[in-house]
Amino acid sequence: MTRTIQAILLLLHSFLLIIVFTRCTGSPIGSSNIVNGIQGQINVAEAVNLQNVYVWLETIGLHTRTNEKGQFSLTLPQTTNSAGIIGFFTLYFYATNYEVATAEVFIQNGRFNFTKGDFDENGKMKKSITLKQNFNIYTEVIPEVVTSDYTDSVQVEVTLQAAEAQVSVTLPLTQPDRGKIGGVLFRNLNSGEVLTSRTLFKDQDGNWVTIERPETIIVNTTPTIRYTMFLPAEIGLATGKYQVIPFLLTQNPQASLELLQSMGENLESFGSGYLNNPFLRENAILEIE
Fold first, then answer.
1. Final residue of a domain: which of 106, 131, 156?
2. Which of 24, 162, 165, 239 gives 20 to 30 Å between its CA and that of 38?
């Protein structure tokens, strides 16, 4: 009888230790408010594809891009350098030709803490984010569909228009006062391959040459139009559909150097690296049949 009572007491003691251990290792602020992932959606007033908006968490260096609906998600990995950090941090939403928007997150010891900040207990963004446009980029290609043996020129027309205030835009590969865009990129929608075309200008001797004499133009609420012509066969455009992207640069004063550097190198180069610039634009599609 005594041994039976001792066995029961031993079991009760072990059970109590398990309860105490579980409570001690749990979060002091409630596990339901600490999650390692966040998600949300951004919007714009214009009818543009929202894919590629850059989402960047300062200090931690975590980043992602939105999908075509403007949705995003971020997860703090277990190896994150945020371990031991406590405080509010800014989450940036950046599109090159739009104003920068932000949200706040609270991080405690390497995890998101949703008792504070702009995300609810499930990690979903509570505040509404609508990016405000600085200037619009509309591209048109004429004709839009050509055959693989097409020998005539195709025209690319680019319209730039500021939403409100004036905006400075640089065309790096052109000649001032000639009305040309200078350079165009073609991204194959199937393979992702990027090809380029540069505008040719006549020099003093009558030869057709490329020019790297940047032109900076002031874009206001009155549309500014630039164009170029190219021969699809000379570029090497095979059968398929291509996104037609004008090569232009602008400085967004709201974007910090740290944010820009976090996007990688070659953002201002005339090649595939340029496409990492998160422009929201109305791109033309050229189809080669």
1. 131
2. 24
